[in-house]
User: Fold this.
Amino acid sequence: MTDHAVKPHINISQVSKTFRGRQGEVQALREVDLQIQHGEFVSILGPSGCGKSTLLMLLSGLLPSSRGKIQVDDKIINGPNSDIGIVFQQDVLLEWRNALENILIQAEIRKSPMDAATARAKQLLKMVSLEDFEGSYPKELSGGMRQRVSICRALLHKPRLLLMDEPFGALDAMTRDQLQLDLLRLCSDDDMTVFFITHSIPEAVFLSDRVVVMSPRPGRIERIIDIDLPRPRRLAVREDPKFIKYTRELTEIFMGLGVFREEV
Amino acid sequence: MAAITDAAPVARTRRSPLRFLGSVSPAFWTLIILLVLWEIAVRITNVPVYILPSPSAIALEFVDYWPRLLINAGVTLSEVLIGFICAIFIGVPLAVLVTYSRAAERSVYPLIVASQTIPKVAIAPLLLAWFGYGLTPKIVIVVLLSFFPIVINTVVGLKSSSAEMLYLAQSMGAGGWQTFWKFRLPQALPYMFAGLKLATVLSVIGAVVAEFIGADKGLGYVIVVAGSSFDIARQFAAIIMISAIGMIFFAIIELIEKFVVPWKHAAVITSE
Assistant:
């Protein structure tokens, strides 16, 4: 936020999005402004219906914005942006392809050289401890394994920007911890920007350089918090007083917004 | 040596007759029991053979009449196969059109669905008037009966790609053609095979019904002629032949499915 000398990787300015529903117009996002630097891990945190997924769709160019401008490097987004990797809450693995082939579809569609892609895919599988499962069909994999394959697929072509829409939302707590660690490891070597959507406060703090708090209906940015915790992050960081301070601060923001209500 | 002694007990149990009895489907044994009961009942009650012949009489007729049965089965089978293939070539492109064109979905699809309320048997005489007694009206009826499950299931299959899957394809820069071949079509295949399997059964019914209405050969024709001379055993022989065609056809499609859609049969595990 403070570093104005470097041109931001992503520049979202005055972006609004309105959906036409059955009961008239619904404003999903209102005048969102956000700059993200290269290599930054930014989490968008907010309750259901705050438009965070909409923001991701706008950033990927899969949905057009109603007003405002989104720029990634020098490119103004006005159609599907294929310079990205994308991971959804559902792993969206192709049931007819084994794990390795599921990752390689990225290269097939992009018509990249397959030899290099295969080597990279195998290396990615190894990084998430799935090297023994490259020949397994999605049906033969557990939910956590499937989502790991889906993350590898998103990273195959070394995108500069990784978009993740609640990727661990459907997983149990322990698998979730493991996948957070896997994700941090995968992100650490590349100068890759991660735009991560979640509704879990600890998850946002654990993973991010910055947490963007969104408030619901219409979705707008309420606060941005810098997370000053050392990297590489280990699970033990969650007992760090600073970590607890951040989660408390975020909880209080949401209480202020009326997202949480405590009866005493 | 150790390996051989280890393997031996497995091989022995597999070869024992008792094990063999158990490995055959229970439905098979139910069928055998029913046939035996039928045989006994016919022999005890002395039902005349023009009302209900015994299974053994039917079996004899089946063997006696086998050469003619085979020739007529060939006729019916060719009607079934030609009609079935035509139904695929009409049904699948139509389904693609309905999936991709909103105009086609709104103008053609409802008519296809509505057309299924017309009883095919009722329009068979009409087709006879238009196309004569040859192969054509039979094929038309087979197509009319079997193309519907193919169209419906293909449409459902092509539409079963989730929004996320299509977004994913777009995020990779996939064009319409790539999205169809790499995402939508493979996703639709299990649905399409469900439709094809339904269509096999319907196409056999279609061919036989068409032969009832007007034919000078085929298994349907055999049944009509045998019926007019009270040759019930021969009717049964033809019915067995028709069922055999239907079952083998279904089994072949299922076999092709196992090769084309192997992932549907992959083992399932639920936890890590």
